[in-house]
## 1
Amino acid sequence: MVSHRTVGRLSLYRRLLNGLAGQGTRNVYSHQLAAMAGATPAQVRRDLMAVGYMGSSTHGYDVSELTKSIGNFLDDQTGQAAALFGIGNLGRAILSYFTGRRPNLSIVAAFDVDENKIGRVIHGCRCYSVEELETVARENDIRLGILAVPAAAAQNVAENMVRAGFRGILNFAPAPLKVPAGVYVEDIDMTMSLEKVAYFARQGARLQAAEIVEQENSRVLETAKGDQQ
Amino acid sequence: MVSHRTVGRLSLYRRLLNGLAGQGTRNVYSHQLAAMAGATPAQVRRDLMAVGYMGSSTHGYDVSELTKSIGNFLDDQTGQAAALFGIGNLGRAILSYFTGRRPNLSIVAAFDVDENKIGRVIHGCRCYSVEELETVARENDIRLGILAVPAAAAQNVAENMVRAGFRGILNFAPAPLKVPAGVYVEDIDMTMSLEKVAYFARQGARLQAAEIVEQENSRVLETAKGDQQ
């Protein structure tokens, strides 16, 4: 099995290839794809070897053929079903963001504890109570879950998902999950990311301010020197 | 300056400490915090040294004091302003998700190219045209931006942000950004993350299916052996 970094990069290459196709580009070299993806050409070639696509040394990779190869590798050809857990602001956003984005991947069920949501259809997706999870998962062959519940509920819901046979969890809840081996978890912590950027934006601004002060000081020194001459 | 990994972990510790405080816990040891955060105790102690907080060897860390120390380190004490770029589904979700989440950090302006949104107030946030960026950024001292525009527009908007003095970008656009040194970018690519989880969920399910087949085969073999005896 390939590494999760390779899978991440393949997903990125496909995005970039779609962009190139939109601009009418037909061929791309590994070094061009590498520059766009922030990877090395050798890495690109290794990654694409994993999907079994070989470029020609004279024309590089055929954009449309390569896109197809990556799709064959990454996507479930018969379609893959996902479930969403938690239909708050974030959950609704996730629903409207992902709906129709990948034809082979669709959110077919949503789960919440709120009685007012259960039984309704939100953004085209039916909402169920968590008690119905095992039945709904079995009937729709769902192995993939998107977790958007509050942090305090996340571990419990994740355990329900594992019991229902889930094998992958995209975790938006700001809580580290404990799951058995064989279940893949990918964390997206938006608050943590924002706090990081906020911190470094402030440090950057401080450094900039310090530089300006320094420049002004040296200008003052220069002027003072000039006066002495 | 501390590393971006340390800043990420500090943000996570604070989240965990808030959870502990909610449960009425007053003291926590570095090894407990480490276990919850998926870090080592030595790492926790090093990270907390960066914020200048020392625990007692007998009672560990004081939960409320430590939370305050991390806050002093991570947050701008006078308040930090952020701007959102792109008020589509994702942008609206980001607005409603972050509004009020951090008292010291608020999204004070949103930018879009859509004439119907410009001048309106969405989720409590005024929307401007990108032409107004430099003025709005200066007047509100904004150095921090959240990018939620389509991939094709991302680089261009990022360059406008840099020109307006932005020092940190939280990038939700599925496009790698090129920015000058001194500008910090944190990428959140939700589609890429979902594709990764989907891939590994499928591999996990396949492995499971293969194991079941293997178990059944060995059971058949066992039965066959039993028949021969």
## 2
Amino acid sequence: MSDNQPSDPSPPEPAGEDEVGLKPELIASVAEALAAGEVAVVEKLIQSLHYADTADLLEGLGPGDRHAFVEIIRDRFDPEVLPELDETVRDEVAEQLGTEVLAGAIARLDSDDALYLIEGLEEGKRRQVLQKIPAALRKQLEEGLAFPERSAGRLMQRDFVAVPTFWTVGDTIDYMRESADLPEDFYDLFVVDAKHRPIGTVALNRLLRTKRPLKIGEIIEADMKTVPVTMDQEDVAFLFKQHDLVSAPVVDHFGRLVGTVTVDDVVDVIEEEAEEDLMRLGGVSESDIHTPAMDTARGRIRWLLVTLINTVIASTVILQFTVAIDRIVALAVLMPIVAAMGGNAGMQVVTVTVRALATRALTPANAARVVVKELSVGALNGVVFAAIIGSGAGFWFDDAKLGGVLAASMVFNMVWAGFAGIAIPLAIDRFDLDPAVSAGPFLTTTTDVLGFFSFLGLATWLLL
Amino acid sequence: MSDNQPSDPSPPEPAGEDEVGLKPELIASVAEALAAGEVAVVEKLIQSLHYADTADLLEGLGPGDRHAFVEIIRDRFDPEVLPELDETVRDEVAEQLGTEVLAGAIARLDSDDALYLIEGLEEGKRRQVLQKIPAALRKQLEEGLAFPERSAGRLMQRDFVAVPTFWTVGDTIDYMRESADLPEDFYDLFVVDAKHRPIGTVALNRLLRTKRPLKIGEIIEADMKTVPVTMDQEDVAFLFKQHDLVSAPVVDHFGRLVGTVTVDDVVDVIEEEAEEDLMRLGGVSESDIHTPAMDTARGRIRWLLVTLINTVIASTVILQFTVAIDRIVALAVLMPIVAAMGGNAGMQVVTVTVRALATRALTPANAARVVVKELSVGALNGVVFAAIIGSGAGFWFDDAKLGGVLAASMVFNMVWAGFAGIAIPLAIDRFDLDPAVSAGPFLTTTTDVLGFFSFLGLATWLLL
């Protein structure tokens, strides 16, 4: 190009923040066009949409519009859209597409995405779809389904590039130029021994900077992390984070290379696991906002039932002190404060503990230290808030002794919350259960019961 | 190799689940050796430790042991360890290493890691360290610091490989073989025009499978996502997830290529953002479990203060009904149930809503639909639990009318919780504030107040 080319006064505007992902206006426009039955307009609107954005569009449309939309794109349905959909919407779309089209779509996907779709189907539907899939792929999918749920075997892709140590860089590049059935995307070569066991990796950029005559064995990265097929996906994610990996070889029970996990799958796992803890701490089980009201309500009942049992237990504690409440009605006014402060202080500790367990920052090696710390935090904040609310209540009800009782029970309950907030999740974790699910309800039951008991008990003892 | 080689009866055991990451026993052994002053034993134990594991070891040790350990490894301190450390521990270790060593370590890191460390230092310390860093790198770091926090500019690496369209595959490979200052890891080449603006990418595996004479322009992937330097890291993460990227070009205001974001940085962002929502919903601000008790206590006070104000407001509601409580003490026993059920049902909805907003599943296009759904869920579960607790309380206190009042206020509060649980976070989000921080306290204040008010008010009206 010539050097004196005039400098362009208006450079192409880089994608602004608003342009990340699907624009809400596009969903509205598509919905409008669908309502008006303008198929051509819809087709124009979605012309150059990325499959992930098409998935978001499907999720953004109401059920009626979604149905109409799927009919329009049915004939050139991009299979890549399916794995991107939330479960509820995916089931709906899969149902509408029918077994035949669904099987065709699955057959065109990468092996890991295909398995992900198949494993999400109901038993009966899964059998029907599998029957329509070509035998070789079906066998692969059935093998995949034999691995435990949430294992590396479910996550991995079957296609990878494996080379022996004695090949030269030139051999390898020539092989890659000739070979027709390489995976679509890959970032590392896996170097295998005569028994097809991985002995190291070669990053593609390393291969590219090396001269042709060098042997693979000379540029091999032997400090490689292999992933057993049965490894839990959470452990896989930890490995990738810890070692900044982009891909890793997956090996079977004999140490033979059978597949590869790539970082894009791991990104999904990390999202999923973090979301799970968040949802579980919030007492929610449903997978997405598209779940119908009836199923959502049913999914949330368990946690509400636990809450109900918790508060009924707390109520029976209050019931023991009706004489005191009858005599000093201010106790009924103040008692929720002690329970709520204990509950919230405890939930802070539970949140930190659940997260620390998930990220493996909390281990047997430092547990004792962290427990002592949380006890101190509880005591510190207990004293601060006891002083505030004790003196406040003393003035409010013109009763210093009442204030003192409130303050004392507050300190007690907050120290307890500090201890229980870490001890309960640790104990649950020790039994290999998930602390995110049950630590919260356990904790608040104890802080409610001890809060009411200490406050009303002390009041009965000292004020009546 | 010969074909009749005997098959190995004991294949190398692949890394089992327990072997992911640092073993707790290793931390204990190191602590023991440190206590006994056995430097040689410590050195042997940590011989082949990955830097991420060394970081976990540092975090797992108590403050005293950590200090002793840093002294042992001071002379061959691996700079890669620093970015892996939690903030509190990192500050401690940085302090101990001293400005000189710290500056040396930062100078040896990739530009993105170096910036990450520098931005985490306090103002004064930052200046001192910057002064000891070679001028060229210092300038780069200062430029990086000029980008907004949590922007792509802070995240990006300055080293990348850019090639023009008219180069052939052969030219490119030869260039890479000759060039000494290529980045350590990279996955894509960026293709630039004469003004150094990216016009497409070439994945390394694509380059490797293409014959030498072909032009870069012929294998370019033009459907490329560019990241503006000012883009928020959350948007960058969204882009990577949506398009399964491993790297993306970062462009300045003029659209010129200035750096690259890689997926390992994005993985950290995804973790960080998911953790942030979890922590904020739990009312926690501290970054890690290593924060000292005093700072932790201080960090948690804000949320506890909000809880206190919330419950005091609720208490003043109760105070209006002391006459009713005085006459029917069962009201004091039952009132926490209405408040707690409303609060927990509402927090379920808040949790789902906060997550749906974070993952952009909830948009203006479907908000109305989701609100209607949550109202239905609230009504459904409200009726279910009203029936349980209404009849239960009716029997318990042998008072059907009391049971009816409890049931009615329960339905009311749970429908309200369904509505407020989604409306409050949506409203907060509309004002561009973070719903994870403040939706919870807002919600529970309303469910407490309305719970007590509806139950005690109805009781006053119907039972007295």
